[in-house]
Structure formats: structure tokens, C-alpha cells
Amino acid sequence: MLCSCDFVIHQKVQSTKLERVKLLKVLDGDTAKIELKGKTITVRLFAIDTPETLKPGINDEESFAPYENAWGEVAKKELMKLIKRNSNKDIFYLKISADKYHREVGILFFKESLDIKDSINYYLVTNGLARVAYFSFDKWRSPFYLKNEQQRIFVKELLNAQSQALNNKMGFWKAGLENVFAKEWK
């Protein structure tokens, strides 16, 4: 199955343009600022969700799951480390859509390829720092509806990675989802 997924993804490379970007700043474990063609853009990572971090004046700890802020900080710091480690390397961006907060939603890749395993999104899921969320295979009216085969394959691969992270008790999976996320993803 992996070979056929890779084939389909690589087959679509010709029609999908990756943009070379610079990672500027981490806002949260699943949100970063990037520079694209001289413009600063806020990007929410596609199809993943990291635990929330405490933001004074915006949210409070009473609304959090017991370990949510702690794991949110771990995810945020890991994303910051990725930026630092890759500051002299090219990062590539694939825009998927925009969200209700006027952020772009997309995938960040370590290489100029559409190999899912080279994405930051995948990295966070495999390390138990993000769960797969905000997608719909069948509700076409949903803002999270997966619009093409490439998106469906990407999410299926993320779900496989999440299953392995859960089975191996990676990252926050050690603590249990109910202790890490106050919001339930449906």
C-alpha cells in the first residue's frame, strides 16, 4: 500500500507546486509564521491538532485538560527546534486552503517532494505531539472536506502514523487523550 500511495503522490507532483519558504516563528505546536515571496503568512498545519498552550487573556487553565498546556508546550518547543535545525535548509510549503481565522492551512515539507514522511505534519504525529484532526472524507459541505485524492492519501498516512504512535505510547499518548485535549475531535 505504501508504494501505491507514494506512486499516486509522486504522480501528482507535476500538477502541485511546492513553494520554497522560510520558517519565521512558532505560534503554537500546529501554527507557524512563514515567509513566502517576501510576505509573512500564518500557516495552520493541515489535518493535525496539537494540545493548546496557555495564552493569557485568550484562554485559561480551567478550560484545559490536566496535561494540555504541558504537552502543548512540548509540541511548540519541538516545532521551534525543527525551525532552528532547518534554518539553513530549504523548507517547502503546499497550501491546501484557508481557515475561519484567515490563516492559510497547509503542509510544510523538509524536501522538495510530496512524500508525506518528509512533512512536519507527519513528524509531529509520529512523535505523539499531534493528533490527526480537522478533516472529513465524506461531508462535502464541511470546511474540512478532503477535496482530492492527494489529501485523502495524506490523511490516511497520518492516521496510520497516529495508530503507530498510539500503540507505541509515543509523546502524549502515554498520558491518554482525555488528559491532553479538552476539546474532543469528532
UniProtKB/TrEMBL annotation:
Name of the protein described by the UniProt record? TNase-like domain-containing protein
Classification via Gene3D superfamilies: 2.40.50.90
Q: Which residues form the TNase-like domain?
A: 17-175
Ranges annotated as spanning the membrane: none
Pfam short name (any one): SNase
Enumerate the InterPro entries for this protein: SNase_OB-fold_sf, Staphylococal_nuclease_OB-fold
